Amino acid sequence: MSFVVPVAEFDVAAFLKTLTGRPGIYKMLNEKGEIIYIGKAKNLKNRVSSYFRTQTASPKQQAMIAQLASIEVMVTNSEGEALLLESQLVKRFMPRYNICLRDDKSYPYIFISTEQDFPRITFHRGAKKKKGQYFGPYPSAGAVKETLKLLQKIFPVRQCEDSYYRNRTRPCLQHQIKRCTAPCVDLIDTSNYAVDVENSILFLEGNGDLLIGRLIEKMENASAALDFEKAAGFRDQIARLRLILEKHFVHGERGDVDIVACATRAGVACVQVFFIRKGQNLGNKLFFPKLSDQDEPGKILQAFIAQYYLDKTVPYELIVSHEPEEVGLLAEVLAAYAKHAVTITSKVRGERQKWLQMTLANAEHSLQSKLADRQGIYARFLSLQEELGCRELPKRLECFDVSHTQGDQTVASCVVFDREGPVKSAYRRFNIKGVTPGDDYAAIHQAVTRRYKRLKQGEHEAPDILFIDGGKGQVAEAKKALADLEINNVMIVGVSKGPDRKAGMEKLLLTDQVEPLDVTPGASGLLLIQHIRDEAHRFAITGHRQRRGKTKKQSVLEDIPGLGPKRRQLLLKQFGGLQGVAGASADALASVAGISKDLAQRIYEQFHNPNGH
């Protein structure tokens, strides 16, 4: 159950008298109705009361209370339930005064499609709907790709798309470099192929010693049978496998362990996690939780572990650099969620102590790099303020650019920077429609209008400075678009390319000045402008290429009478894409369900004689 205390009726003494002593969570809201803090309590009455004892309140608590307009309380059955609910809500609402983890990407796995005669091993991200075996999660796509590359060198199991595999008539390059046994053209039978699949699974399961033992036995048997070429092949496999195991397997570990270390300095925290599954080091991942104060590492790890693991596979053991504040409760909640025992410990010895020290050293190094980057960006913001004559230090910058090919498939981009650098979650693209091809002025007007209509609706913050990649015409259109929306508090700066389009020679154009701005040569603020302009350009070009490629793929087939959307999709799937359709014979096209001989001939002629209709 829950109840709300609005600010107009907020009587602290009366509120605390009615507040329950049961466990639960409490949400503090400001006058706009925004959640500024979410907390959990074993005893709600005692915990919430502590905020109103001025003699014990911290500066952070005093700042929260100063903004407090209402409180919402939700009672739970236990403190464990409260911890779970608190973590879920903090991750969802990201309140200003909570320690918040920014981690909204699903983690990748390796997938083996064991239901097929010739299974495929591949990268997988998302829901586990396909039949087969999943290995992971891995900390990054790069870690998965590295593992797949290593596997291919030892056990040549195919990694190609099924559509590509089904339509091969001769071995591909992977077979020529001995990284695939070409099951697509029957150069290996199912039984021998199954051995490679089984060996791959043993490797991914962490059974490296068992795998080497089996290969040694096969090598000896081949040697005894005087099949020295085959024995040499097993010998090379064993050598490569030993090298990989030495690099990627953790000595003395056979279980699932994560090593979690936290380093803090100057109001910034870095959490480094090393992932060990079945004794295999899957790699590591960095996190920079959002802090509102200089919190202790134990408190940060308490929040991090709760938010991070409660929607993921939980290992049997967490080795931590600092003991979380409520380590017993945290382990209990994780165990209930994972349905197996979970231990959290900071006191380890031997090899584990070495791994923990290495993880902490990595966290401290990454934190140092982050602080250096942040200081560098902050200095550039200071320089930008000086060069543009801003009264206050800018907080948020946005930049627009337009990309097209001779006016075709125009895409506008908007990128966002704050004082920590690019804010990629706030980037947006706009497919420009209804303007004369090649009219960059109209494209900028449309993009700015569409972007800041959403600002009026409260969907995002207003920038302090709006950069436009272009000259006076583009700047004028951006100004007009903002004026139409009655937005008058945004500074507009045009970034016009200099002589020979040379970096560092750009001209800065302001809406209220005829001549370009006189700037200090080499000022670090100019580097910031170049960075955001180049990022907008890159983002626009990428979007344009994607749109152009998609349109090209669709338009060639859409021009063929009698070939509807379902048949187009079926063709692309059967032949592995447009290139496969283009290279297919009329008879091959006619073999696809729903494609008649006449239609197959029209499709063939579209690619081989497009002007002969």
Description of the structure:
The protein is of the alpha+beta class and 613 residues long. It is built from 20 helices and 19 strands. It has helices spanning 12-18, 44-49, 59-67, 79-93, 141-154, 162-166, 173-176, 190-204, 208-224, 228-248, 297-309, 327-338, 350-388, 440-456, 472-484, 524-558, 565-574, 578-583, 586-590, 597-608; strands spanning 2-5, 24-29, 35-41, 70-75, 109-112, 121-124, 133-135, 257-265, 268-277, 280-287, 317-320, 343-345, 396-405, 408-418, 421-422, 428-431, 465-469, 491-496, 507-510. Helix 9 runs antiparallel to helix 10 (228-248). The radius of gyration is 30 Å and the shape is globular. 32% of the residues are buried.
Fold topology:
Elements: E1 2-5, H1 12-18, E2 24-29, E3 35-41, H2 44-49, H3 59-67, E4 70-75, H4 79-93, E5 109-112, E6 121-124, E7 133-135, H5 141-154, H6 162-166, H7 173-176, H8 190-204, H9 208-224, H10 228-248, E8 257-265, E9 268-277, E10 280-287, H11 297-309, E11 317-320, H12 327-338, E12 343-345, H13 350-388, E13 396-405, E14 408-418, E15 421-422, E16 428-431, H14 440-456, E17 465-469, H15 472-484, E18 491-496, E19 507-510, H16 524-558, H17 565-574, H18 578-583, H19 586-590, H20 597-608
Parallel strand pairs: 8-11, 11-12, 13-17, 17-18
Antiparallel strand pairs: 1-4, 2-3, 2-4, 5-6, 5-7, 8-9, 9-10, 13-14, 14-15, 14-16, 18-19
Helix pairs in contact: 4-12, 9-10, 13-16, 14-15
